Amino acid sequence: MDRASDRFALADGNFIPCLGFGTYLIDDPIVAYRSVADALELGYRHIDTAAIYRNEESVGKAVRDSGLSRSEIFVTSKVWASEHGYDRASRAIDASLKRLGLDYMDMCLVHWPANAKNYSDWQAVNADTWRALEQAKADGKVKTIGVSNFLVSHLVSLQDNCRIMPAVDQIEYHPGLLQPETVAFCKSNNILVEAWSPIGRARLLDDPTLNSIAHKHGKSVAQVCVKFALSQGVLPLPKSTHRARMAENADIFDFELDWSDIGDIEGMEEGKRYGSHPDEQNFCAE
Ligand SMILES: NC(=O)c1ccc[n+]([C@@H]2O[C@H](COP(=O)([O-])OP(=O)(O)OC[C@H]3O[C@@H](n4cnc5c(N)ncnc54)[C@H](OP(=O)(O)O)[C@@H]3O)[C@@H](O)[C@H]2O)c1
User: Which of 21, 143, 186, 211 minimizes the number of CB atoms within 10 Å of its CB?
Assistant: First the structure.
């Protein structure tokens, strides 16, 4: 990959720009609009939003106003955890499209799996939600369908109950949390992994190992984190509301991490999550 617009091929035949712009916690409409507009100006071609981020209107408007053709920009949204089940998920997809003001979403994800903590029949609930995404794809409302925060157990259960396998699994992924089992399962089943919180919500910026790697390459820790994901074939989704940081996070195509850097980052693994564990979260409870 040489630039943010270079694309990974997906299992369904579609293509996805290799660097995404995250929009979590940008719910002020003016800031959300300006941030997405800045990101597009700086060369990002892939925007990650979700119904729960409450910024789909601003994201869609910034995409429409960008002057770029619709086909150049990849827009992802997600069905929130309160919308599990076929009917609710179908309505949630329509509502997202309406808020975005777009004819189609490039990708729609199931934001969190139904889990055993909240549903005795979590496998059936996930299969039912997934059917709504399959139908939205058949109807042309969504080009690619995928999941988020699905662990191997959730993916295996879905595999037994679906017509189309997810093309993408968006999971928490950063130095300290590389989720090797989920990543290996996805790779062997041609599911692209996306990294949320690729720079650990900025909590990794003082890490000594990452600082030493960054110093060696004349780069920042944030750049090392984004580059590390890409080096592993994982698609990073860094978020910033600061234009200079957006530019910094995308300026990662002029250096390579070497085997010792990769080894050092793998050595940081401690299963440390900054977000929720998919089997522990309570979002699905109504
Ligand atoms: N599927 C899911 O369940 C899920 C969950 C969480 C996130 N996501 C997606 O993944 C995206 C990224 O995750 P995230 O927002 O949690 O975390 P992140 O991108 O790892 O970190 C964002 C934080 O780092 C700061 N930052 C960004 N670039 C920086 C730089 N170069 N130098 C210093 N600080 C920098 C940002 O501050 P400023 O904004 O002030 O610059 C913000 O506080 C989200 O925005 C969202 O699209 C998905």
Answer: 211
* Range list of H helices, the chain: 29-41, 56-65, 86-100, 122-138, 152-159, 180-188, 208-217, 221-231, 243-250, 259-266
Q: Measure 240 CA to ligand 1 centroid, in angstroms.
A: 6
Count Cβ atoms below 10 Å from residue 161 Cβ, excluding itself: 13
Q: Which atom of ligand 1 is nearest to the CA of 198?
A: 20
85 found inside a domain: yes
Distance 197 CA to ligand 1 centre (A): 5
The answer to whether residue 87 sits within a structural domain is yes
pLDDT per residue over 146-171, tens digit each? 999 999 999 999 998 899 999 999 99
Q: In the predicted model, what is the mean pLDDT of residues 242-270?
A: 98
| 211 found inside a domain | yes
Instruction: Using a cut of 0.90, tell me whether the model's pTM lies above it.
Output: yes
Instruction: Note down the domain range covering 93.
Output: 7-266
Does residue 276 form part of some domain? no
Maximum alpha-carbon separation in the chain: 53
Q: How many domains does the chain have?
A: 1
Nearest CA to ligand 1 atom 11: 22
Domain containing 54 — which CATH number? 3.20.20.100
- Active-site annotation holder among 33, 44, 53, 173: 53
Q: What residue type is assigned to position 105 of the chain?
A: M
Residues with CB under 6 A from ligand 1: 22-24, 48, 111, 148-149, 170, 196-202, 205, 220, 222, 237-242, 245, 248-249, 275
274 is catalytic: no
- Tell me the C-alpha distance between 223 and 86, whole Å: 40
